Amino acid sequence: MSPSPDNARFIIRRMNLADLATALDWAAAEGWNPGLDDARCFHAADPDGFFIGTWDDEPIGCISAVAYDDAFGFIGLYIVRPEWRSNGFGIRLWRAGIAYLGERNVGLDGVIAQQPNYRKSGFVLAYRNVRYRTVAMRGDDRLSGVAIVDASSVPFDRLCDYDARCFMSARPAFLRAWIAQREARALAAVDGEIVRGYGVVRRCRNGYKIGPLFADDLPTARALYRALVSSIAGETVFLDVPESNALAVALAAEHDMTSDFETARMYTRAAPAAPLDRVFGVTTFELG
Q1: Judging by DSSP bridges, how do beta strands 10-14 and 72-80 pair with one another?
Q2: What CATH number does the domain located at 10-129 have?
Q3: Among 81, 148, 248, 264, which has the highest number of CB atoms less than 10 A from its own CB?
Q4: Which residues contact 244 (CB under 8 A, 6 or more apart)?
């Protein structure tokens, strides 16, 4: 007889960092290719927003439900281990994450095939994100009038303000961890004291991912991209692009990137008023 998810042996609790590392191992097994320092950075975004389900203390499923502020949250890392699926554990984890986020507008990046299920939970398609990949080439990262500098040299409040204008919310705790993670490089494009864009490239289980890549315009995004990959020539690099940003798609084409797969960006309410024309690369599919 299949185990019942209502059985008292199934417990949902908040993750600690060790639990989150386990969840990211599951994500890697699913082909999601997490970064080497994702656990620490993700946890910094909202330590209360990660849930794990256990059967007799054995971890069997998880979900993240990061509350960025009182108005916006994001669902990710929704996994039940294969041998425990089709027993109702996933829906209990889902309900726990949704309950934690309450009345917020909630976003997610889901696989296309699951759109009907997300619609049943009140999510509406906003646009598609496409993952592109290529082999990094060393290129000319010069850009007239805009300097490319280490992001740590930019006053943090300025970088945080730029990030908040490109993202759906301010996320200072996450950003501070994200730009300082190990085996990563964070660069900013500046014009005097004005931030024109920034990006992060981090080592993952397979190759490197760039995310976010936020910029005022295509030339700035191009310069940041080339500077970010200049130190990883010969490595596989991935970039997750909002399909509705035609210039971001053009940037991927310029660098001979090919599409790997796509996700459906969905929200429970209207899509936040983030300027997608500045989003040349999504931060992560797990946290938005």
Answers
A1: unpaired
A2: 3.40.630.30
A3: 248
A4: 127, 128, 276
**CA–CA distances in Å: residue 52 to residues 30, 75, 237:** 17, 14, 30
Structure token pair of residue 50:
């990660």
Decide: helix, strand or coil at residue 171.
Answer: coil
Give the percent of the chain with pLDDT over 90. 90
Beta partners for 105? 72
Cα dihedral sign, 10-13-18-20: positive
The DSSP letter of residue 238 is E
Q: Is residue 216 classed as helix, strand or coil in its secondary structure?
A: coil
C-alpha 159/C-alpha 54 separation (Å) is 39
Q: Which two tokens stand for residue 129?
A: 């994100």
Same CATH topology for 10-129 and 131-260+275-281: the answer is yes
**Domain-wise residue ranges, the chain:** 10-129, 131-260+275-281
Whether the link from the prior residue into 212 is cis, omega within 30° of 0, is: yes
pLDDT digits (tens, 9 = 90+) for 83-109: 999 999 999 999 999 999 999 999 999
Tell me how far apart the alpha carbons of residues 220 and 227 are, in angstroms, rounded to a whole number: 11
Q: What is the DSSP letter of 32?
A: -
Report the b/e string of 228-245 with b at 16+ CB within 10 A. Answer: bbbebeeeebbbbbbebb
Rg (C-alpha) for the chain, rounded Å, is: 19
119 Cβ partners below 8 Å, 6+ apart? 266
Look at residues 197, 193, 158, 156 and name the one whose alpha carbon lies nearest to residue 178. 156
Residue 21 corresponds to which amino acid? A
pTM for the full predicted model: 0.94
Give the single-character DSSP code of 161.
Answer: H
pLDDT digits (tens, 9 = 90+) for 176-186: 999 999 999 99
